[in-house]
Amino acid sequence: MSTTDTAKNPSVLFVCVHNAGRSQMAAAYLATLSNGAIEVRSAGSEPAESVNPAAVAAMAEEGIDMSTEIPKVLTTDAVRESDVVITMGCGDTCPIFPGKRYEDWELDDPAGQGVDAVRPIRDDIKSRIQALIAELLPTS
Q1: Cα–Cα dist 61/83, whole Å
Q2: Which of helix, strand or coil describes residue 1?
Q3: C-alpha dist (Å) from residue 24 to 90, 97, 98
Q4: Could you say which of 3.40.1160.10, 3.40.50.2300, 3.30.450.40, 3.50.50.60 is the CATH number of the domain covering 9-132?
Q5: Could you give the CA distance from residue 14 to residue 35 in angstroms, rounded to a whole number?
């Protein structure tokens, strides 16, 4: 097997409690803005029934459709398979594996908020995602 066969894109896992707002927006931005060059996962320690409608509406304003996303439960495998794990208010519910990069992004929780309150959270996430892409995919 050649080295190109084993080379893989960097992977990022976004985790928040309900996997319904912040982590979904972050995953949608990363998938869109990296043009598929970064593998993206999101999950929650206590997934909600559905994605926050205000988060869906706020992302639609950016031309990103999250309407078909569903909250997913956090698994040990998802953490193990990711290079970078970014938590958003889930505390210590994430399993820790040596050699992984962990970050905790302190962001307001959009749960129960209207789209006007979600926009600043969305914009904060977008700027963090742009910085993350620049770190993970440096251009020459």
Answers
A1: 30
A2: coil
A3: 14, 23, 25
A4: 3.40.50.2300
A5: 17
Tens of pLDDT, residue by residue, the chain (140 residues): 444 444 689 999 999 989 999 999 999 999 999 999 999 999 998 999 999 999 999 999 999 999 999 999 999 999 999 999 999 976 656 677 888 999 999 999 999 999 999 999 999 999 999 999 999 998 74
Around Cβ 116, how many Cβ atoms within 10 Å?
A: 9
- Predicted TM-score of the model (pTM): 0.91
Domain ranges of the chain: 9-132
Name residue 96's amino acid. Answer: I
Q: Which contiguous run of DSSP H or E holds residue 15? A: strand 11-16
Based on the number of CB atoms within 10 Å of its own CB, is 118 exposed (0-12), middle (13-18) or buried (19 or more)?
Answer: buried
